[in-house]
Amino acid sequence: MSSPFLKIKREKMNVEFKNINKHFGPVHANVDINLSIKSGSIFGILGENGAGKSTLMKVLSGFIQPDSGEILLDDKVVTIDSPADAINYGIGMLHQDPLDFPPMRLIENFIVGQKGGLVPSYKSTMKDFEELQKKFGFSLDPEAYVDTLTVGERQQLEILRLLWMGANALILDEPTTGISSLQKEKLFAALKILAEQGKTIIFVSHKLEDVEALCSRVAILRKGILVGEVPAPFDSDELVEMMFGKVITLGERNNLSQEKVVLELKDLYVEQYPLRIENVNFQLRAGEVIGLAGMEGSGQDILLRACVGLIRPISGKVIVKEKDLSHKNYLEYMENGVSFLPASRLEEGLVPGLTLAEHFTIAGDEKKGLFIDKDYFKEKAEKMIDEYHIIGRPDLNVESLSGGNQQRAALSLLKNSLSIILLEHPTRGLDIESAIYMWGKLKERCQQGTSIFFISGDLEEILQYSDRILVFFSGHVSPPMDASTTTLDQLGQLIGGKGWKQVFDTKEKL
Amino acid sequence: MGNDIILFGLAGVIASGAPIVIAVIGETLTERAGVINLSLNGVILLSAMIGFWVAVETDSLFFGFLAGMVVGALVATIVAFSSITLKQSQVAVGFILAITCRDLAYFLGNPIMGSQGPIMLSTSIPFLKDIPILGRLLFQQSLMTYISIIMIGVAWFWIFKTRPGLMLQGIGEKPAAAYVRGANVQKMRYFYTIVGGALVGLAGPLYTLSVKPGWKGTITGLDGIGWIVLAITIFGGWNPIRAAFGAYLFAFLQWLGLVLQPYMTSIPSQVLQVAPFPLMILALLFVNMGNTEWMERLIASLPDKVRLRAVKILRSMQSRQPGALGTPFERQ
User: Fold this and answer.
1) ipTM of the assembly?
2) Domain with B170 in it
3) CATH number of the domain to which B212 belongs
4) CA geometry: angle at A191 spanning A187 and A195, to 5°?
5) A99 CA: distance to closest CA in chain B (Å)
6) pLDDT digits (tens, 9 = 90+) for B266-304
7) Do B162 and A87 touch (CB under 8 A)?
8) Bond prior to A274 in cis (omega within 30° of 0)
9) A108 touches chain B (CB under 8 A)
10) Is the Cβ–Cβ distance between A462 and A428 less than 8 Å?
């Protein structure tokens, strides 16, 4: 029952796409793609959201069938009808949202789908699992439940599973989204090991820095067309130009903060099992941007949610504009000009099934009568679509918008006169252009005196846009640090729990 | 009350719990695959009537049970076709079927009202029946009761210990992930819906041929059992062993109502007859207390060692519904 991988069979597999075409309705998602990927290398596929990267990979992994064109594995034409077919050919795909089973134990999740007798042997699987994970320096507990893992750990689990199933070619779809920098290092190290063993690694991303750090060759897609292929070493400007067809510059950090305090945390103590955050004292000034840095699940989301009444503090105070809102609910916070944009846009931010125009109807303060003034809100939606560059129409359901456009829509729904906006991962899953745009809009609001409190897993984003930074490490919160004097390296160390004593003299914190 | 009488009563609880156990296992299998078969209250009545009728006509218990299973499987096929293939609301279809089947049972069952039919007798198991207490409780039962007890273990083993069982969990939890692992989601959902339906259909004749012999129309007293089965499936956490406990608890409460009636003359008998239903819900709510926020708060305040243990215990008690329960699967 052990997998081919463990028998040190170093199978190689060259993957080739020939004239792949795929339409989704009127959209030509893949236009005549020709691409050849050699085994033993890490091949990057770069492009902004909606460039057709995922479509091409879904064709290879059997999720969708191309309208025309062929896939060749080691120069042989193959038909891949389903993901199960793909894995039989040795192609495994790590999806952006890990396709695993949260309530199962790791080892059970590992076994599902593996062929064999009626009753699987946990003992031998456990041995395989430990052996396999040792090779990559992973330390997953096979008895733990999947839903207790972080996104990064679930990726590790899935990679191990695909290898165990006998994958020779591994497709990774935006794997660095939502994982910590430490996990990213681990992931990259593992991918390098696999490439050395002769496996084919296809790394799909819209993040330049990841592709540059990892890949030996990159293909760039734009609007469904293969724009070109570039070997390492890469020139960032060249890649950006190929991705977007134009040169993009990052926005400037400009300190807009004023003296006025809009939010004050006093001896705040919140907890959500298993984390507790104690003794938080902090003042947020008007127009200021505060970044919350830390590995996923270090407590930043708990603090953020405590600042909008979504988690009630055990003790301490949350004071918004000199008003004590400690034990009030979200509605009270909203009435006092605090708004929250959660990370899961479709689950908590927008209402799937409602159109854009309908969102403006339920979100706004105007025209609160019993009947809906359809024309008014259609016009308003059109105005906002224009202002926020949303690609969509007022009568489109929000779930049919792309991720970047959903995020813009969520932002456009926020009222104008807010004093504080709290954001979770405001640019997660967005390409550079959308991210820069998003921040441009947020900065406009800062100019009007709005303060921003945001969580991000992307340290560069935190350094780029914050005025001050709070670092989180397993429930400990650092005193605010000035972003202009903090380096990326320093921040990286701190979120990993290193160097706290040197940086902060406040002994009661650790 | 003497000990003998109590023992006799408890043995009766095991026997009268048997149809509930079987139906609960059937519904558990169906829901584990991600399909809600809401028709079971009607199915139990219809299969009870038809199973009894067939048994009367053929003078064969076997054909009676078989007919009940066929009825259950057929109704389940309708549920499966409309919800899996046509992707219609499982709740709407199931609910209408529940009402239709119930009324059909009463209407079509008129000709055999009050007929005499075969009754399943108990078969003691040699040697085992002589074990004190346990022998009386477990080994002097009818064949179907033995089957129901064995089924608890088999179903549990199938769902949690076998390869197809793990895949079954996967199909109900996240069909896309199961699909990627090579499962034919639609086919397996059909399979488990029909098998589950057949088991629910077995519960009907088990009443009319054994537990409450005979078909007496609306006073047969089976209306409502299907809904309780549904509740037990949910609060049983989609786990056959826990669900079986729920089933026996319900049968026990019903028996208690009967036993206490002569002693509690001040309480109207209807109250005692109905009491098991709300009591059942209360008991099951209590078991699922670990899901609540205040419980989490309470636990968070405990010292670390105690807390970890408490979390573990509560986690094992908690029930979490299959993630994709009631939602159709689309490949893309």
Assistant:
1) 0.82
2) 3-317
3) 1.10.3470
4) 175
5) 5
6) 888 778 778 877 877 787 677 667 666 677 667 767 777
7) no
8) yes
9) yes
10) no
